[in-house]
Request: fold
Amino acid sequence: MKKGDFEKFDLEAAKNGTPVRTKNGHRVKIFCYDRRTAGGYPIVGLILRKEEDTVGLWTAEGRFIGTWTNHKWDLVIQTKQENGKKGTDRSANRSSD
Reply:
């Protein structure tokens, strides 16, 4: 995934079905956007990696749990499909690690 293939995480776009990935390119399957939590991580999902899935928690701004600086598993909005066309790609193919 190249830099031009994604943009800053947008909670409303993600809720409306726009594909979400981690900054390092892994697909993310979101299960919940409104987890009740005192810790500030309302987004719950799976990071779909080649060998295994990893459970992730994120802030409403897309920050990965426990990180307050740039992290490879922060969320971004995918702006292009893998074949280079604009649009949404909802398939759940695994990303390589």
